[in-house]
Amino acid sequence: MRLHRILLTAILLGAAGCHPGPVVHSSPNMDVGGTIAGIVSTTSNSAVPDRKVTAIDTVKGARFEATTGVNGGYTIKVPRGTYRLELQLLEGERVTKQPGDTKIDNSDLDPKRDFVITGGKL
To answer: What is the pTM of this model?
Structure first.
């Protein structure tokens, strides 16, 4: 009987060691979200680095920010929701192309949320 108990314990521990961990089920209301990405450039297709891009949740008002890289690209991870995108402008600049509101669902990747600007000291 003791040998049977030892074998059973060994089998159970071995099986537990193969399990990757607890299985967590996502609630349908969980804000998993996705990613918003784009490029900021000038009307002459030059990249605009070091600009703050802000995604603002149109319902909750939450703000998520990123700064453009040397290629003018940005990526912002956000919870599920609908977002308005804003770009930091310098004196004399104006936006000639701006993405519309962006709806993010679970695991969405919304690329090509691009801005084009003109004017100022570009």
So the answer is: 0.72
